[in-house]
Write a structure and sequence with these properties.
Layout lengths: L19 H66 L6 H21 L8 H20 L5 H22 L6 H31 L13 H15 L2 H11 L2 H14 L11 H81 L14 H31 L14 H37 L3 E6 L4 E4 L1 H7 L3 H6 L11 H12 L4 E9 L5 E11 L4 E8 L1 H21 L4 H16 L2 E7 L5 E8 L3 H5 L2 H18 L3 E3 L2 E8 L2 E9 L9 H68 L6 H27 L2 H6 L1 H11 L4 E6 L7 H22 L4 E8 L2 E8 L13 H10 L3 E5 L6 E8 L8
Parallel strand pairs: 11-12
Antiparallel strand pairs: 1-2, 1-5, 3-4, 4-5, 6-7, 6-10, 8-9, 9-10, 12-13, 13-15, 14-15
Helix pairs in contact: 1-2, 1-4, 1-5, 1-9, 2-3, 3-4, 4-5, 5-6, 5-9, 7-9, 8-9, 9-10, 10-11, 15-16, 15-19, 16-19, 19-20, 19-24, 22-23, 23-24
Length: 910
């Protein structure tokens, strides 16, 4: 058994979680790693410097190509200017050769910049080529003056030299920077000399008296650039520059400059056009030779700096890797000399912790690790002796020799305390064993005396032990319960659910309040509610059960009563209530149930029957049950109480203190249990309530129908009296008035005007009377039917009405037509007075056995029948003939009325 280590909440320090070998490697490698990191950072910097030098070296090659193009453009410029000044001195072939030289230099420069990823040198060269081509075309047409040609070529030169300066400006070292500065300064000095040559050539070609009178700005610019060159170049190149300035071409150029620099230049001393071009060209060619050597010096310097940087990087990397290899080898050797004995001691300690006393530590060094190995060998001997004492103690327990005690004398310290504790545990175990036997006897008494069903079952599907309550509840003997799988005692319909519960127990989960049905020895069913807990390590399940048959039966009965009561409360028809009572009682008692009505002549009418048992069982003993049922009904009729006669139980249905009918329940096999009479009585009370409710509703419906019919008859009588009496009287008065008007001799007299005024009043009164008569009961409804009456309403309406009538040609019942007419009339009135609608839609059609109407307006909405509006009267009229009216009127969304009127009147009796 392993020793007790640190708890889960304790986490050792980080270094304590590392093995010794790794600690040694960290101890050796951490300082070396720091040194290597420093060298690596230094190497990265050196490598970056080397990369910059490589980029600069490549850049110089591109700048040299651009310089070559610049020199070619300068030569082409002087040739173009000469051809413009003195066409006879420069042949077209010479000029074409200069242009070809420039194009070849451009092509070479483009090839050199093909793989260049820096600035857009290729684009710059392409732009320079396009400018040269355009300038050549203009120069060939002789449309440009010599100064303009020189100026345009100078623009191309400036762009090229600016790019050369940009390419050589990024020097990563001081020596490379000085060489680049010297090269750029000399290139700019040569360009100043070139421009001076062109400018003086143009001036010297001028007519006599128009020659140069002062020096230009180019000698000062050349001198400044040459001073920069001298400061940054080598002694050899400085010497060559000095020699060039004092050669004959250089002296001739300086002489011309001195002449032009005098306060009053002596133009007669100026050289000729040809002499100036010869001396200046020779001097510029000497400077270009120095430029080539300066470019070579720049290239050599850049290559040398690049090679030096790359060499340093490789050397430092090699030294670093060598140091790391040596240190790693030494660290691994030291680690092996320490970790091997430690590993052996660790394995011995682990084997001892696991109880393996056969492992031997062979390491016998004279260092601290050797001392630890010797200590572990002594510990193994002591552990073997301790294990012997423990084995002896276990053997005594197995043999039930609880008086055995271990020998503590040969051991010291903790080992002695451990064996002493074992002796104390042995004594406590002996005392506990006695108490356990007593407790088992008490548990056995409780197990046998408990009224609840207690059992112990196994995972093999058999009961291992059951208490007497099991035998009393199920009627099976204990031997029978233990000899069969317990699923055989479970009802067939509940076996699958029981298997699921057993699977849960097998997985180690508890089961609480699980219910299933068991079969008693007499074949009846009983409901048991289980609570069980598994003990997986023993393969057992401890369970207790209660007989909940009666409580479950009461719950089922109350649920059935609630369903029937809900049906009665909803106002369902009595026929539906009779059928539901028969179904609920049949399902509850598992019997055949019949609901019968007692007729005044003594006969009985069956209102609902349910066969809750198979038909073959129902047919068996049919005559015997029929006689028992008749006897039960006679007994119920005489006593007004439930009666139990053999296999039949009857209960009376009493409505307003009179026997209305019976509910009979019959079993095909056995007599119904006691208490069935009271259970049936609860259902008969609900039936009586449903009958009373239905009768009250029928009387209310009939009363409302009579009120509506009387109201309609009164309207028709009033309309007929108005038509036959007042209306005819007004017609007679109108005729008399017309006769009186015809007797007048002067139509313009005051009497004629008064008679005309009275005639108009009679006409208005007659029209008002017609409107009142139509509102009371329209004659067109009685003569033409609902369709023409609705169309007449639409024509007279103050708001547009859209009709969608799908009515049959035959007349509908009078009550239905009157109700539909007045509902439509009231809706149109409300749409005008209250809803302020712009249009009203009226639809009507016959569906199945009812007339369905939808009246919809687009007014303000917000109509609520409960607020005492005219809608209440419409609802009463519709419901009086068995119809239904629904109102939907959201504020701001108009009002919609849905009316459903039956074609046949509702029944008025139960």
């Amino acid at each position: 058994m392993r020793g007790v280590g640190p708890t889960r909440t304790e986490r050792p320090p980080l270094l304590a979680r590392l093995r010794v070998g790794r600690k040694l490697m960290l101890l050796v490698l951490l300082p070396v790693t720091g040194l290597l990191a420093f060298i690596a950072f230094s190497g990265v910097a050196q490598w970056q410097e080397a990369r910059d030098l490589r980029a600069f070296h490549t850049t110089t090659e591109v700048s040299f190509a651009l310089t070559e193009v610049s020199d070619a453009v300068a030569r082409e410029r002087i040739a173009a200017v000469q051809a413009r000044l003195r066409p006879g001195t420069v042949t077209p072939a010479a000029r074409t050769a200069a242009e070809r030289t420039t194009d070849q230099a451009l092509e070479r420069a483009v090839d050199r910049t093909a793989g260049w990823t820096g600035a857009d040198a290729a684009g710059d060269l392409d732009a320079a080529g396009r400018r040269l081509h355009a300038l050549r075309v203009q120069t060939g047409t002789a449309s440009l003056t010599a100064p303009t040609v020189a100026q345009d070529y100078a623009g191309i030169e400036d762009a090229l030299l600016d790019h050369v300066a940009v390419f050589e400006s990024g020097s990563p070292t001081r020596t490379s920077g000085r060489a680049a500065d010297a090269h750029i300064a000399l290139v700019r000095a040569i360009e100043a000399a070139e421009r001076e040559r062109v400018e003086l050539a143009i001036l010297l070609d001028a007519p006599a008296g128009q020659g140069p009178t002062a020096a230009g700005r180019w000698p000062e610019l050349e001198a400044a650039e040459l001073d920069t060159f001298r400061q940054n170049t080598s002694d050899d190149l400085r010497g060559e520059l000095y020699s060039t300035q004092f050669e004959a071409p250089g002296r001739a150029v300086r002489k011309v400059r001195d002449t032009l620099a005098a306060p009053v230049p002596e133009t007669v001393r100026l050289p000729s056009y040809e002499s100036w071009l010869t001396h200046s060209t020779a001097r510029i060619d000497s400077l270009r030779g120095i430029q080539d050597r300066a470019a070579h010096a720049l290239e050599v310097t850049a290559a040398r700096d690049r090679h030096s940087a790359e060499t340093r990087v490789r050397r430092d990397l090699a030294v670093s890797l060598a140091v790391l290899g040596v240190v790693t080898v030494l660290a691994l050797a030291l680690r092996r000399s320490i970790t091997r004995p430690l590993s052996e001691v660790s394995q011995g300690a682990r084997a001892l912790s696991d109880g393996d006393l056969s492992y031997d530590i062979r390491y016998a060094g004279r260092d601290e690790l050797g001392d630890v190995a010797d200590t572990f060998r002594e510990l193994r001997v002591t552990t073997e002796r301790l294990a012997g004492e423990i084995r002896a103690m276990n053997t005594a327990i197995d043999d039930n020799r609880l008086g055995h005690r271990a020998d503590v004398a040969p051991f010291d310290g903790t080992w002695a305390q451990l064996l002493g504790g074992m002796n104390g545990t042995m004594a406590s175990f002996a005392a506990a064993h006695g108490r356990r036997e007593k407790a088992e006897q008490e548990v056995a008494s409780i197990f046998n005396l408990s009224l609840d069903l207690l059992c112990i079952s196994g995972v093999d599907g058999y009961f291992k032990r059951v208490n007497p309550a099991f035998e009393r509840t199920l009627g099976h003997s204990g031997e029978e319960l233990l000899s069969k799988p317990y699923l055989e005692f479970v009802h067939a319909d509940d076996r699958e659910a029981t298997r699921v519960a057993l699977d849960r127990l097998a997985s180690g989960a508890d089961v609480a309040e699980f219910e299933n049905r068991y079969l008693r020895a007499d074949g009846t069913e009983c409901w048991l509610q289980w609570s069980a807990r598994p003990v997986p390590e023993e393969g057992l399940v401890y369970a207790t059960a209660r007989d909940v048959t009666e409580s479950r039966r009461a719950a089922l009965e109350q649920a059935a009563l609630r369903r029937v009561a809900t049906l009665v409360a909803r106002g369902a028809p009595p026929s539906e209530v009779f059928t539901r009572v028969a179904e609920e009682v049949g399902a509850l008692l598992n019997t055949t149930v019949a609901v019968l009505r007692q007729e005044p002549d003594g006969s009985r009418t069956v209102l609902g029957t349910v066969y809750g048992i198979p038909e073959e069982l129902e047919r068996a003993g049919h005559e015997e049950r029929r006689q028992a049922g008749l006897k039960a009904m006679r007994e119920v009729s005489g006593t007004r109480r439930a009666a139990h006669v053999g296999q039949v139980v009857g209960a009376p249905i009493v409505v307003e203190d009179r026997l209305w009918g019976f509910v009979l329940a019959a079993s095909p096999l056995d007599a119904l249990p006691a208490g069935t009479e009271s259970r049936l009585a609860d259902f008969t009370e609900l039936i009586a309530t449903a009958i009373v409710n239905a009768d009250s509703r029928a009387q209310l419906t009939a009363s409302r129908a009579r009120v509506v019919a009387a109201s309609d008859a009164s309207r028709r009588r009033i309309e007929r009296d108005l038509h036959d009496g007042v209306q005819q009287r007004l017609v007679a008065l109108q005729l008399d008035l017309r006769l009186a008007e015809s007797l007048l001799t002067d139509p313009s007299s005051e009497l004629a005007e008064q008679l005309a005024h009275v005639g108009k009043g009679l006409d208005d009164a007659f029209q008002d009377l017609l409107q009142v008569a139509r509102g009371i009961h329209p004659a067109i409804l009685s003569k033409g039917g609902l369709g023409p009456a609705l169309r007449s309403l639409a024509r007279r309406s103050a708001v547009p009405v859209e009709l969608d009538l799908k009515l049959p040609a035959s007349r509908l019942p009078e009550q239905l037509e009157v109700a539909a007419y007045y509902v439509t009339s009231e809706c149109l009135t409300n749409a005008v007075k209250h809803a302020h609608a712009r249009v009203v839609e009226v639809g009507a059609e016959i569906r199945e056995d009812r007339l369905e109407m939808v009246i919809r307006d687009d007014g303000v909405g917000g109509a609520e029948p409960g607020r005492g509006s005219g809608l209440i009267g419409l609802i009463d009229r519709v419901e009086a003939i068995g119809g239904k009216l629904d109102v939907s009127s959201p504020p701001g969304e108009g009002t919609t009325l849905e009316v459903r009127l039956p074609l046949s009147p509702p029944p008025t009796n139960v």
